[in-house]
Amino acid sequence: MNSTGKNMKKILLFCFILSLFCISAFADKPLDFTVTFEPTLIINTDNPKNSAPAPIVYPLSFGIVFPKETFISFQPRISFFTNYYLWNKNGAYPAEIENRTATAFSFLLDFPAALTFNPAEKHFIDAGIGPSILARFAVLSHSVHGSDAGYNGNTASDDVSEINRYFWKDANFLFIDTYCAYLYKFTEQLKAGLELKFYIPCSIFSGNDLNSAMISLGIKARF
Known about the structure:
The protein has 223 residues and is of the alpha+beta class.
C-alpha cells in the first residue's frame, strides 16, 4: 500500500475514534441536528495563468450539536463537494473545466467546540473553533484519458497520482475551522439563520501561504 493510502486510513481511523469518544461522552445528553448549505470560496494563490481563479463550490453539510441548549457544545459536521484539479510543478491546483485533469471528491470533516450566546429570547449566536480534515480522492475527469499528455512529459494518469499524493502530503489535509452563526428561533424545534466559516490551512505554519484556505457563507438550520 502506498503512503497516500496509509495516511488516509490513519486519518479516517482517527476521525472514527474521536467521534466515538465524543458521542460516548455525551451519550445520555439530548442533541440537535444541523443542515447547512454554504457556497464556499477556495483560495488559490497560484498564478492565474497556470490554474483556475479561486473557485466556488457548493457543499451540503450535515451535523449534530450535543449537548443541546448548553453554553458549551461539540458540533461535528460532514460536508461533501466536488472540484476540478490539475497538476502543475509541485502542487495540485483548481482547474477550469477546459484544463481539468482530475475530479476530486471531497469530504470535509469538522470537529469544532462552540460557545452559544442567547442575548435575547429568540436570538442565538454561535462561535466555534476546532480541527477540520479535508479528505479528498481524485479520479480522471470525464473525457480525460489516462494516456493523455500530462504535466512535464507525464501522462494524465501520472498527474492524478501526483494530485492524490499531494492531498495527503504534509498537512495539506488539515485545517483549523473557525466560525460564527446567527440563529433565530422560529419554533421550539427549529432555529435557522446565517453562518460564516473560515478554514485556515495548517500548512501555513510550515511557511506556506493561505493557498487552499476556504471561506463560506450560507444558511444553517438547527432542529
